Amino acid sequence: MVPPFEAAASDGAPPPPPGTADAASPAARTRTSPAVDYVGSGPPTYDAEPTALPLADPDDLDDLVADTVLDGARYGTCALRAVSARGDSARFRGEPRRDALLTARFGTGDQALVLVAMATGARATPGAHRAATEVCHWIGRAVGRSYLRLGEDIRAARRGDLKSGLQRLTDRSLGKLRAGAAEQGVDPDDYTATLRCLLLPADPDCRTRVFFGVGAGGLFRLRDGEWQDIEPRAAEAVGEAVVGFGSLPSETPEGDRLTMDLGITTPPSPYEPAPEPPRDPFRFRASIARPGDVLLLCTGGLADPLRGEPRLAELLTERWAAGEPPGLTAFLADTLIRVKGYADDRTAAAVWEA
């Protein structure tokens, strides 16, 4: 008996036009995958679409936060997709998105450095969305002022200097957030946020990807059709990068561990107390990507269901393992596949390696 797809090809139908993907190819399967609204034991409690808008202050319209932001780019050997969307719970209650997303390119040509920063404000706290936005801007300014040296250190594999310098920048950014809380008369423990960042060199000869940050979330890698949870544990935060292909040495063969000039000012004056360091452990990982990898950085709103619902990871594998990055709208749909019991904001950045 002839299989149906072979019979269809032999009944005189014209061949597909040049450039058309074979229906059996991975790319075609990815494009034609049916839309999936949710996975898990049943439909989520909340509606799939936004219900209520956040309350607006006519004298402070700059404080409004869009339900969803979407961005993307292609530099060097990687393609970036990034999204931040309000969770089902906040959409139902008319609360603003507590997650913030910043994507920025500093510099031009092969010297450019792309930063992706995402943050989540404290739950059930007024102004949580402002705290998340502010800490993204603080770290963005710090990285942008030092992007040339950061890029040099990434290319030269100066891991020790990268880790210590980025930790200082992170501590200072979160310290500024605490100082701002004191100025506003707000408890610093309430006016705070997690912070998770990626540094992506535009140099096509450099496949080093650097993650750093503080707080909950996820760092995953899709390699050879399998998801790997590579989130550095607190115990690993002071050690080496992930062991395996492309792990970077702690110093160059010549022993070069030059101190980074990250634009950090001298110790503050005695009239200005130094900001407190973050209470959560600093997390850092530098690794080298292989062609075909997909690196996914996300806040807890996506990391938690990815770890808790295997079907979600399977669906993302089906959609993303074909090699070509999805378009922006397809990426948005993929990252918003819902899971019952997980209704927080979702912010994610995925990097496809050519």
What features would you describe in this structure?
- Helix content is 28%, strand content 23%.
- With 354 residues, the protein is α+β, with helices and mostly antiparallel strands.
- Helix 4 crosses helix 6 and helix 7 (300-308) packs across helix 8 (310-320).
- It is globular.
- It starts with a helix and ends with a strand.
- Residues 1-31 and 235-274 have low confidence and may be disordered.
Strand residue percentage: 15-25%
The arrangement of helices and strands along the chain is HHEEEHEEHHHEEEEEEHHHEE
Rounded mean pLDDT is: 83
Number of strands: 13
Shape: globular
Count of alpha and pi helical runs = 9
How widely separated are the two ends?
Answer: 41 Å
Structural class estimated from helices and strands: alpha+beta
What would you report as the Rg, rounded to the nearest angstrom? 22 Å
Q: Write down the oligomeric state.
A: single chain
- Outline the low-pLDDT stretches: 1-31, 235-274
Question: What fraction, in percent, of the residue positions are helical?
Answer: 25-40%
Biggest sheet record: 6 strands, antiparallel
The strand order across the widest sheet is 2-3-13-11-8-9
SSE arrangement:
Blueprint: H1 4-9, H2 26-31, E1 38-39, E2 68-75, E3 78-85, H3 88-93, E4 99-106, E5 113-121, H4 128-145, H5 147-155, H6 159-184, E6 193-201, E7 208-214, E8 218-223, E9 226-229, E10 282-288, E11 294-298, H7 300-308, H8 310-320, H9 328-335, E12 338-339, E13 346-353
